[in-house]
Amino acid sequence: MKILPSVLILLLGCVPVFSSQNVSLRELAEKLNIYIGFAAINNFWSLSDAEKYMEVARREFNILTPENQMKWDTIHPERDRYNFTPAEKHVEFAEENDMIVHGHTLVWHNQLPGWITGREWTKEELLNVLEDHIKTVVSHFKGRVKIWDVVNEAVSDSGTYRESVWYKTIGPEYIEKAFRWAKEADPDAILIYNDYSIEEINAKSNFVYNMIKELKEKGVPVDGIGFQMHIDYRGLNYDSFRRNLERFAKLGLQIYITEMDVRIPLSGSEEYYLKKQAEVCAKIFDICLDNPAVKAIQFWGFTDKYSWVPGFFKGYGKALLFDENYNPKPCYYAIKEVLEKKIEERK
Ligand code: 9MR
Questions:
Q1: Which residue is closest in CA terms to ligand 1's atom 13?
Q2: Quick check: is 8 in a domain?
Q3: I need a labelling partner for 286 at 20 to 30 A (CA). Which of 251, 294, 333, 335 fits?
Q4: pLDDT tens digits, one per residue of 3-50
Q5: What separation in Å is there between the alpha carbon of 217 and the centre of ligand 1?
Q6: Per-residue pLDDT at 116 exceeds 80
Q7: 121 within a domain of the structure (yes/no)
Q8: Is it the case that residue 224 has pLDDT exceeding 90?
């Protein structure tokens, strides 16, 4: 008899833990009519822990972006040869698991094959190459890739056109043409401009705002804006972020958070930084979910085991929702709490 109350307390104590572990992020996101997603690592189907990776991915997410394998160097390795095999694997995994696919990316200055970067082009030649690439790739995945990052990172950090091979050879009209060609190839796809460090109101986001405004006024089919959201545990200026979302939404654009990660220092108090990271994630979700133009929040990976961050930002890492052993982190639970709160609010 004596143990009964303590058993009861123990059981009651477990209830919230059980219920919140049973509900996945995607189930909650679906109740709010949004997508929650991840960038899928190269050849994830042949990782040593592929089963675990895929189990978490299919459980938690309903939108997938191939992290690298739809980029030029993989998908178009020679002028007359396309290689759709790895990209197909990403799309098949998504289809098998009732996820949509966010294609990344049709025009970028990075990860270009040597046959593009290794010679000079005339404007006419490069226009032909770009048209062929966009139309071939978009038609190949017509109806299967729902969203395309048509143009990626075309603006410099100071707010000018980036001096890429596309800009220098073709001029700014490569952007307009890219959107028009993608639209011709798949009129139903959602076409996005995607960039980093444009989350707040600043010189770069002002430039992007004016650029898209002008494109829309000309009738160029830009449907959405992608805020990449590669940030650190100190977060953002949230008021500026909220106002920025509002002004882009007023242009009639859908909003996508496309590549979120929140890096923390790898030395110092991990407990402190993970708590800060969780607060930042919660705040961003809170603001995004208050704006009906936001259609998806996508992370740039999901386990800290596979993330571009430590390789790029020295001394930083652990930027994602799950640790190296696929255990959910405080930021995962913080996001869940926000999703649950929003579901309650909308009842
Ligand atoms: O995560 C990607 C990494 O594996 C590649 O080595 C890198 C090469 O440039 O690109 C990373 O992804 C980038 C994305 O395509 C565009 N926005 C910034 C991302 C992080 O660099």
A1: 67
A2: no
A3: 251
A4: 444 444 444 444 444 445 689 999 999 999 999 999 999 999 999 999
A5: 31
A6: yes
A7: yes
A8: yes
Q: What is the mean pLDDT of the chain?
A: 95
CA 240/CA 64 separation, integer angstroms: 28
Q: For every residue of 143-182, which 3-state class applies, written as one string?
A: CCCCEEEEEECCECCCCCECCCHHHHHHCCHHHHHHHHHH
Name the one residue in this structure whose structure tokens are 């048509």. 150
Per the structure, the complete domain to which residue 329 belongs is given by 25-346
pLDDT of residue 318: 98
CA–CA distance, 178 with 56 (Å, rounded to integer): 35
**Nearest alpha carbon, ligand 1 atom 1:** 308
Residue 18 lies in a domain: no
Q: How far apart are CA 64 and CA 107, in angstroms?
A: 19
Question: Across residues 338-344, what is the average pLDDT?
Answer: 98
Is the beta carbon of 67 within 6 A of some atom in ligand 1?
A: yes
Residue 154 has pLDDT above 70, yes or no: yes
Q: Residues 43-76: pLDDT tens digits?
A: 999 999 999 999 999 999 999 999 999 999 999 9
Domain count, the chain: 1
Ligand 1 pocket member 261 (CB < 6 A): no
Residue from 60, 153, 176, 199 carrying the catalytic annotation: 153
CATH of the domain at 243: 3.20.20.80
**Is residue 196 within 8 Å of 155, Cβ to Cβ?**
no
The residues, any chain, with a CB within 8 Å of residue 254's CB and separated by 6 or more, are: 190, 192, 223, 224, 225, 293, 295
Residue pLDDT, tens place only, 247-261: 999 999 999 999 999
pLDDT of residue 235: 98
For residue 167, the tally of other CB atoms under 10 A from its CB is: 19
51 annotated active-site: no
Residue 16: inside a domain: no
